[in-house]
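User: These chains co-purify. Model them together.
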Amino acid sequence: EAEVETLKEYMGVSQHHDSITGTAKQHVNDDYTKRLHIGNEKCQKLVGLAVGQLMAKNSSTEGPKTQFCNYLNISMCPATENADSFAVILYNPIGRNVSTYVKIPVNGASYHVAGPDGSSVTNQVQAVSDAVQRVRRDRGSAKNDLFFFAHVPALGFATYQVTSAKQALKRVRPQALSNNVKAVPAPA
Amino acid sequence: DSDTVISTDVIKVTFDSTGLLKSMTNMDSNVTVNVKQSFYWYNGSAGNHESGQASGAYIFRPNSSTPMDLFNGKSVSGKVVKGSEVIEFHQTFQPWLNQIVRLYKAKNFVEFEWVVGPIPFMDGLGKEIITKFDTDIDSEDIFYTDSNGRQMMKRQKNHREDYPYVDLEPVAGNYYPINSRIFINDKNKQFTIMTDRSEGGSSLKSGSVELMVHRRLLHDDGKGVGEPLNETGQFGDGLMAIGKHRVLINQTPQAATIHRELGEEIYMAPWVFFSSQTSGWN
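Assistant: Joint model of the two components:
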């Protein structure tokens, strides 16, 4: 309750038209933004815990530790930029199935994406655009964006496992390699 | 010296030899709209002989009704980036103004992702940046803007339903708040722009739609703030704005269903979480 209270209070303060439109003095606007960010951060942590609990397979196991990335629109996300494998969990707040494209900042050149049923999902990796690099300046380290198409059930979750191709290759059984069997790279 | 075409199974977009948008075709609904899109700027008024009112945080008052084009007249250095899921056309209008026109393989809209700023002001002029689409749709002086993403309000240039319109500000007097979408149509085809935030916009001539995406002004508007809307941003050289417009072209009778569904998906897009744990759970 305390976590949510902060955002509730700051949302109340921000009902003022200046906060909605940013038409107060600069330092006042910055203060509105700062308070909303503090409230937002607290709620994100709480929602992340809730999502983890909702996804635990049963009461004995613990759900995944999840995190948000607030700068996906400018290709910044520490959780994916430096990871060879990670899970992308989508929650759909609409009461009908939704299909959407996901764009994630990465550093690898090729990835294997597995859908909720384990099947391979076609994906595309391309360089972060000059335009986004211009906004990002010296923040973030992702060189590429990974795109894939995700289907999320009504008011439900979908989990996609992303593994960098080089990581996926490592998973080939060692003896297979010793028999000079050519490692088949993960499907693009 | 020739057109550039990017397309999926559903949508085809053509750019002319300078790299500016030339036409869009929805193969599903068999609709083609000839459309030119560019960015422009209104010079924010500093007050003049008619009125000392300057353009500022509370006031939009361009000092002329004709916006200046930000296209350099030669090329936007267009570049195609093509893949299995997404096809993009990258445009550079100014060193501080880029746009990516994006098609998704399985989607029926065209995404315009723009990056505007830092807006230069060393010429001493405040600038109010708009994106403008000029189409061949015969919409006359009628256009529609939403009210908080729900009801679509019919708008008519130089006219108000609720009070006698006095044409003091030919541009600003026709600007309306847009929370999620603006569209124009004729009896055959509809051109809808879905925004990702509230913006000001209008249709100042038949077939044309404009939306204001960023502003940088040098005079206080005398409404109490006591400083100009001149945001220096985190890096001190001026605020940058990044955003998206999704454009739909449809036959008019089907357009409402399509923009209603897309509007919901934009407004309540899936939340995206990440986890480093990849133990055997899905």
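Chain B touches chain A at residues 57-58, 81, 83-86, 88, 90, 92, 98-100, 104-107, 113, 115, 225-227, 229, 231-232, 235, 240, 242, 264-265, 268-278, 281-282 (CB under 8 Å).
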